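STRUCTURE:
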């Protein structure tokens, strides 16, 4: 284990990974090794003492996760509507207890949604098709991006993926702008994006574009639109519903952004300019 990872492990209660003894088998035989394994925990979110969601997540940047989830799910309109937040741990997992304004709590009660999610699913717990396929926000931000900017941003993202370099098991989401990349990682691609939205508190997102190290699914486009992001570039493919939703939202959706190649599926308020 390198010095950077050792420091993370000793300085943080939840660095995002744990060391495990393992056996490596190759053409030279069997040898003992210490492997860095992505940490996974049940993270419960509650609002005003009412349980709302349990997500399997990497227990790192959890304040960002709680705020970003609250914003992207429309539970609050801005971070200031979360008036208090506390974290507690037990053998079963981690609980993040939030207090939100009574107006927002009344709206949440009206929705009557209780989510039980896993890292790979963004719709678990929806009680009807209408709840699952929700209206999408209309993007008002404008941005002009070149293929070279996307390529350079992915290179920066790769350099900042500390957890994935250590474990090979986590996704990342990044906001790229003229001042660099803000990056968050998690075993769940939705969680990584929620953490990113929470890290920026949902503000300043209009000044950059979004990178994700996963496929571009419906949920990822929906969360991007909720943060008023005009361009989303994914390293893998989009789904059909993601393309349809991006068209409705006015989001420019790019897939297969790898090296010098990319595929543009929709042209929205994020202008892709060939330099």
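SEQUENCE:
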């Amino acid at each position: 284990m390198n010095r950077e990872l050792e420091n993370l492990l000793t300085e943080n209660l939840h660095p995002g990974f744990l060391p495990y003894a393992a056996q490596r088998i190759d053409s030279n035989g069997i040898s003992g090794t210490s492997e860095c394994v992505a940490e996974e925990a049940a993270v419960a979110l509650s609002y005003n003492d009412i349980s709302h969601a349990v997500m399997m997540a990497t227990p790192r940047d959890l304040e960002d996760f709680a705020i970003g989830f609250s914003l992207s799910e429309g539970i609050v309109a801005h971070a200031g509507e979360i008036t208090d937040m506390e974290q507690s741990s037990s053998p079963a997992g981690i609980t993040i207890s939030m207090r939100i304004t009574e107006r927002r709590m009344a709206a949440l009660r009206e929705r009557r949604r209780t989510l039980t999610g896993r890292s790979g699913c963004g719709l678990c717990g929806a009680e009807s098709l209408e709840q699952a396929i929700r209206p999408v926000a209309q993007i008002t931000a404008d941005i002009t991006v070149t293929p070279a900017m996307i390529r350079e941003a992915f290179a920066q993202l790769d350099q900042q993926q500390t957890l994935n370099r250590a474990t090979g098991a986590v996704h990342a989401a990044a906001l790229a702008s003229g001042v660099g990349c803000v990056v968050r990682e998690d075993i769940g691609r939705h969680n990584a994006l929620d953490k990113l939205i929470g890290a920026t508190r949902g503000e300043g997102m209009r000044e950059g574009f979004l990178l994700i190290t996963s496929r571009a699914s419906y949920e990822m486009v929906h969360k991007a639109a909720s943060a008023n992001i005009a361009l989303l570039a994914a390293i893998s493919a989009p789904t059909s519903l993601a393309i349809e939703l991006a068209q409705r939202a006015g989001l420019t959706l790019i897939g297969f952004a790898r090296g010098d190649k990319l595929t543009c599926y929709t042209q929205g308020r994020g202008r892709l300019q060939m330099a």
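REMARK: The chain has two domains: 41-132, 143-272.
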